[in-house]
Amino acid sequence: MNVPKTGYRVFSANSSAACTELAKKITERLGVELGKSVVFQESNRETRVDVKESVRGQTIFIIQTIPRDVNTAIMELLVMAYALKTSCAKNIIGVIPYFPYSKQCKMRKRGSIVSKLLASMLAKAGITHIITMDLHQKEIQGFFSFPVDNLRASPFLIQYIQEEIPDYRNAIIVAKSPAAAKRAQSYAERLRLGLAVIHGEAQCSESDMADGRHSPPSVRNTTGHTGLELPLMMAKEKPPITVVGDVGGRIAIIVDDIIDDVGDFVAAAELLKERGAYKIYIMATHGLLSADAPRLIEESAIDEVVVTNTVPHEVQKLQCPKIKTVDVSMILAEAIRRIHNGESMAYLFRNITTDD
């Protein structure tokens, strides 16, 4: 038998309009008031947090969206968590819809796995649980020493397709690369639609090919130590870009988890137009839309970009009317309620596959 607990508060980890708006939507659904705190930057850009009420012995949920200034948002979250920890909060749960640095989850040459570092920092600051949405790689959950609930936005995006795209039955789900094929297949199966995959890459000039993919050199170096001879490695070479599947006379819906640098999406849209698609939609959970992404989308063959409100993008929407937003505060609020009451989270993952 589940016994409801008493005493929990919801705080916003920054004072930006987007984070405050999402926090208010969540607290309204929960029927609680937003916790009183002040988060600001000192004149020397140091982050300062003042908690204006007692949190002793309570479970605290910190809502943090990640704006363009990612590092400041991380410090706000860390400082607020530590402030609540030192104020004797019982449990501190981070509600981070978009987990930053999630693309840096693999070792690249002499780089580092930054998402693992961030997971350790959050634990050290006092966070004991995280609610997030559509991690870039699900294996990131293994970086944490505490529970992680990785929610899915696909039910909301699928609902948008069914309700807002006329004649969606004539659509085809498109993966912009083979790596995104599993996610696209999951959407296609639930919508009972066909599937297409974009494979290969645009051919570039020789001056653009100095990125290491053609190394090691094809000629053996005979100088230096010759006691060990390794087999000669063949360079990777992708075929010219092509579409596997028939998109002629169809609505093309490209699905992905993050849309940031839109160059690949714009190129994919042009290719799909050439192959006969008459409308092109992009569905993504996290709309980072950095740099001049709004302008590129506005000038492209893309008809509409649909993202959720996990990341603030109000400025980008003003610059590009093609960008639409789907609200996911409902599932975040329900996750908070279930965790607080000790209820199972399985209901939030019904009909969700591991490929989403």
Automatic annotation (TrEMBL):
Q: Which family does it belong to?
A: Belongs to the ribose-phosphate pyrophosphokinase family.
List the keywords (alphabetical): Nucleotide biosynthesis
Q: Which SMART domains match?
A: Pribosyltran_N
Q: Where is the Ribose-phosphate pyrophosphokinase N-terminal domain?
A: 16-126
Q: What is this protein called?
A: Ribose-phosphate pyrophosphokinase N-terminal domain-containing protein
Superkingdom field: Eukaryota
Could you state one GO cellular component term attached to this entry? Answer: cytoplasm
Tell me, which GO biological process terms does this entry list?
5-phosphoribose 1-diphosphate biosynthetic process; purine nucleotide biosynthetic process
Q: Name one GO molecular function term.
A: ribose phosphate diphosphokinase activity
What InterPro entries would the database entry show? Pribosyltran_N, PRTase-like, PRTase_dom, Rib-P_diPkinase
Higher taxonomy: Eukaryota, Metazoa, Chordata, Craniata, Vertebrata
Known Pfam families for this protein? Pribosyl_synth, Pribosyltran_N
